[in-house]
Structure formats: C-alpha cells, structure tokens
Amino acid sequence: MKNLNICIIGGGNLGRAIAEGFLKAGLPAGKLVITRRRPHLLEDLTKKGVRVESDNAAAVIGADLVILAVKPYQAEGVLQGIRSSLIPGQMLASLMTGVSLESLKSWLPETVIPFRVMPNTAIALQESMTCISAPDCNDEQKEVIQELFETLGKVIYINEELMAAATVLGACGIAFALRFIRAATQGGIEIGFGAEVAQEIVAQTVKGATELILQTGHHPEREIDKVTTPKGITISGLNAMEHQGFSSALIQGLLVSYNKINNG
Ligand SMILES: NC(=O)C1=CN([C@@H]2O[C@H](COP(=O)(O)OP(=O)(O)OC[C@H]3O[C@@H](n4cnc5c(N)ncnc54)[C@H](O)[C@@H]3O)[C@@H](O)[C@H]2O)C=CC1
Ligand SMILES: O=C(O)[C@@H]1CCC=N1
C-alpha cells in the first residue's frame, strides 16, 4: 500500500478523515494528494507534507487510485472536469451516497473502472467499517483494494444492491451510535456524574459492549441475559425503554434514511 499514489477529490468531512487514516496507517505523506475548492482549509494536512490542490485535473495525474468524496450532486461535474486527465489503469473509488456504478461509468472513460466504497468517519482512526462493491474489478485489483482499506478498519465486499443499506447501517450508523452515547451521558448527569466523567463511563461501556459482540460473535440478547438479574434493575430499565419505543425508534430511523437514498 505504501507504493500506491492516492488522490482524494473533496477534502471535506470524509475526504479529510480518509487522509488522516492513511497517514496514521503509515502511508508516506508524499504519496497523498487531496483537493478542495478552498485548499487553505486543509492547511494542517499541508503541514504534514500532503499536497493540497484546488485543481482536480492536475491532482489526478500520477495517481494509482482516485477517491471521489464530493457531494453526490457534484459527481457528474467533477468527473467531467477530470475525465480527460484520467489514463487507462487508474482505479476510481466513489464514496458518494446513492450514485450508481452505472452513472459513474457513463461519466468516465471506458478504460477507467469505477468501484464503490462506503466507509464511515471512524476511518480517521483506522476503525472504519468499509463496505465495497467492485463487480468490474478483477481478483488482483480486488485484493489490492481490500488490502488498502483494511489498513483503515474492517472491509467487506457486498453486491451493489446492498450499498444503500450499507450506507445507512455503517456510515449513518456512526451518528446513530453517537446519539445513544449523548443521551446516555445526559442521563448519567441527571443521576449524579459530571458531564466529562459520565461521557467517559458511557463511551468505555459502549466499547466494552461492542467488543463482547465482535470477539464472541454472540447475539446481543445472550450478553444482555447475563446483565439482567431477575427482578433486578436492568430489566426494569430496558423494559421502560422499550415501552417508550427504543428499538422501534431506531428501526424507523434506519428506514427513513434508507428510503431517502432510494427516493431522493
Ligand atoms: N460524512 C460521512 O460520514 C459520509 C459521507 N459519505 C459521502 O461522501 C461524500 C462527501 O461527504 P462529506 O465529506 O460529508 O461532505 P463534505 O461537504 O464535508 O465534503 C465535500 C467536500 O468536497 C469539496 N468540493 C466540492 N466541490 C469540489 C470540487 N469541484 N473539487 C474539489 N473539492 C470539491 C467541498 O468543498 C467539501 O469540502 C458524499 O457524497 C457523501 O454521501 C459517505 C459515507 C459517510
Ligand atoms: O448523511 C449523509 O447523506 C452522508 C451519507 C452517509 C453519511 N453521511
């Protein structure tokens, strides 16, 4: 991965997070170019040795992999701007929500094969859940892509039909999980802790719960059963949450996000 030259187009929330993740993973700063219309906003990356550009067409020259991280409605215009600078053999990863491979192909030269990548902002800390759909890549290209994104967290390959679902569960999921952390922290303050301590307790507890599932593969309810003492306080709290629609609210939210991708 240290040999790949990578160009990120669109240094916003996600583009910047990916650049930070690559640097943490040991990619030499000189192998990375990132673009933004107002490059001075990425001054911190410039200081780390990353080339920051406002000219997309110049930035893609020499890149083995171009990562497109602009807003979905900007996709076509940005690709038209770099189209004539792309050369056969370059790979193009699109992070854009709801932009199909079919659309990408119609905006790209035939010799450039696009694939879709759906990471989340934890990619900055190499803790992303990254779902990839690359039906037009060969096995060797898939291996290179997998190896690259595995330096930034977990990777799974999925069919493109599942990309919208992956976006909601994995990418939006960061915000959903953080809202749980915020709410639990607010509850913790009401029952006696200062905000900072409450947040630390909640965040470490969520991390522990996550590890119980990731390391054992157990169903969450199996681990919940170990916490819910009969006639105890946990089951009373859980049931009160469910009476208020806890699980239902979460599932409804996922569906609203999902339907918005499909219906615009
Ligand atoms: N933020 C997230 O957690 C996730 C975002 N995505 C997708 O990633 C894409 C980017 O999302 P965000 O980073 O949140 O948006 P953002 O608005 O923070 O970043 C987009 C960046 O592109 C820059 N930009 C716009 N036009 C440009 C151009 N012509 N040349 C160079 N740069 C240009 C903007 O200045 C901005 O900094 C979207 O398509 C989104 O659907 C996917 C997964 C997660
Ligand atoms: O909210 C959004 O549209 C983007 C896509 C997934 C995360 N953020």
UniProtKB/TrEMBL annotation:
Keyword Cytoplasm attached: yes
Gene3D superfamilies per record: NAD(P)-binding Rossmann-like Domain, ProC C-terminal domain-like
Keywords, ordered alphabetically: Amino-acid biosynthesis, Cytoplasm, NADP, Oxidoreductase, Proline biosynthesis
Domain called Pyrroline-5-carboxylate reductase dimerisation: residue spans: 160-260
Subcellular location: Cytoplasm
Matching Pfam families: F420_oxidored, P5CR_dimer
UniProt-listed InterPro entries: 6-PGluconate_DH-like_C_sf (IPR008927), NAD(P)-bd_dom_sf (IPR036291), P5C_Rdtase_cat_N (IPR028939), P5CR_dimer (IPR029036), Pyrroline-COOH_reductase (IPR000304)
Residues noted as binding NADPH in the record, renumbered to the chain: 56
Taxonomic superkingdom: Bacteria
Residues engaged in binding NADP(+): 9-14, 69-72
Pathway the protein contributes to: Amino-acid biosynthesis; L-proline biosynthesis; L-proline from L-glutamate 5-semialdehyde: step 1/1
Class of the enzyme per the UniProt entry, highest EC level: oxidoreductase
Catalytic activity: L-proline + NADP(+) = (S)-1-pyrroline-5-carboxylate + NADPH + 2 H(+); L-proline + NAD(+) = (S)-1-pyrroline-5-carboxylate + NADH + 2 H(+)
Enzyme Commission numbers on file: 1.5.1.2
Family of the protein in this entry: Belongs to the pyrroline-5-carboxylate reductase family.
Purpose: Catalyzes the reduction of 1-pyrroline-5-carboxylate (PCA) to L-proline.
PANTHER family documented for this protein: PYRROLINE-5-CARBOXYLATE REDUCTASE (PTHR11645), PYRROLINE-5-CARBOXYLATE REDUCTASE 3 (PTHR11645:SF0)
Protein name, as recorded: Pyrroline-5-carboxylate reductase
